[in-house]
Amino acid sequence: RFIACPQLARTVQRCLQGGASPGPRPVLLECAPGPGILTRTLLNAGVRVVALESNSAFLPNLQSLENSLDGQLKVIYGDFFRLDPLVTGTVKPPAMCSDKLFETMGVAAVPWRADVPLKIFGILPQKKERNTLWRLLFALYECSSIYRYGRVELNIFISEKEYKV
Questions:
Q1: pLDDT band at 88 (very low <50, low <70, confident <90, very high)
Q2: Which residues bind S-adenosyl-L-methionine (predicted)?
Q3: Model confidence over 39-70: pLDDT tens digits?
Q4: Binning pLDDT at 50, 70 and 90, where does residue 116 land?
Q5: Is 3 annotated as a binding residue?
Q6: Does 79 count as an annotated binding residue?
Q7: Rounded to whole angstroms, what are the CA distances from 106 to 17, 80, 81, 92, 118?
Q8: How many domains does one find in the chain?
Q9: Which of 30, 50, 136, 157, by CA, is between 20 and 30 Å from 97?
């Protein structure tokens, strides 16, 4: 569920930074960073990262890294793939609502004609993979959830099986 190879982390970092336009850089939301190998690679390249981690075992290490930096990294306990659940009432972490997430990240809504305010990177969990992909597509069509804030660049690894479908 996370990148463990430093060489792959450098490749992903170069791809995420490729084609960067002049001006303010978008925030990168890293879903389930795990031990933080990609996170450190991105930080070393000067990227502003928000790490959204749902596994409490990885939180202390990430929070220690956050405390050693000056605002370049923000660690949030949550699960991107359980964003905006279809329940009424209080949402229990690691599930969360996109408006609360964007408020915590400090990302404001921009018009769709504006540049990308947010890049998202993650590895889609194979459990309910197809359902999660459909939810992301329907949210895009409806301009709801993460898409209420403008264009969002999704960089998500999926299984070869789903890719072929």
A1: confident
A2: 3, 53, 79
A3: 999 999 999 999 999 999 999 999 999 999 98
A4: confident
A5: yes
A6: yes
A7: 21, 16, 20, 21, 11
A8: 1
A9: 157
